Amino acid sequence: MTNIKVLVGGATGRMGQHTVNAIQREPNLELVGGTCSPGSSQEGSIKLNNGDSVPLSSNLEQLINQTNPDIYVDFTNATAFIENAQLVISNGIHTVVGISGLSKEDTEVLASLQNLYQTGLAIIPMFAIGAVVLRKLCEEASQYFDYVDIIESHHEHKIDTPSGFALDLANVLTKNKEYSRNNAEMETLDNTRGGEKQGVSIHSIRLPGRSSHHEVIFGTSGQILTLKHDTLDRECYMPGVIKTINYVYSNSVFTIGLENILGI
Fold this sequence. Notes:
Layout: E1 4-9, H1 14-24, E2 29-35, E3 44-47, E4 53-57, H2 60-67, E5 71-74, H3 78-90, E6 94-97, H4 104-117, E7 121-123, H5 129-141, E8 147-154, H6 164-173, E9 195-197, E10 200-206, E11 212-220, E12 223-231, H7 238-250, E13 254-256, H8 259-262
Parallel strand pairs: 1-2, 1-5, 2-4, 5-6, 6-7, 7-13, 8-10
Antiparallel strand pairs: 3-4, 8-11, 9-10, 11-12
Helix pairs in contact: 3-4
């Protein structure tokens, strides 16, 4: 049986490094290369666990021609990926998008490219399976409450706020309703109530020591319901990453959210 050849975008980043290692543990997957930032001191090659090496380059087009991948997994950033999306998808490469910060317009462009070239393409705001369960619980709870706040916290180097998963949670919560929201008569410090989407307040925290935390607080008369999910290590994302790689290889469809791959 031929292995599925995988190219990792952002292979030297935190998620990229974990993905590089996870792919090597899977008997049906073959890591064929990775991208890095221009001028990176690591550019050249990725040393594999078996002693071999695969190319690491900032030139994505050259890597595609050199490695002929089946799957491209992107952990760069929204700007970089959108610039390269046409190149990747037009080459018939199935794509896993693991970044946040994509706009509605970006998503529409990706959907059009997928439809044109009929490749598998999955946009996954959150790879942790426990967080996907949290999403489902929020969807169920939302019908019983009229007030809700989302608190998300990540490490201090995360470049976007709020997180893509926090936005996804807000979209789920507001799909069929708008919430009540306290509007303070006097705000002595701007923006202390957080961002807002149809009455849902969203608060972002960026601190050293955090990986990923999402907390959804529902309120109604006389009671509070709090649902939360914490990731303690990025390794928890890898089962979701591997499931998505195998899914897009076998399904030439446009998918948003791990829940639609897991059937939750």
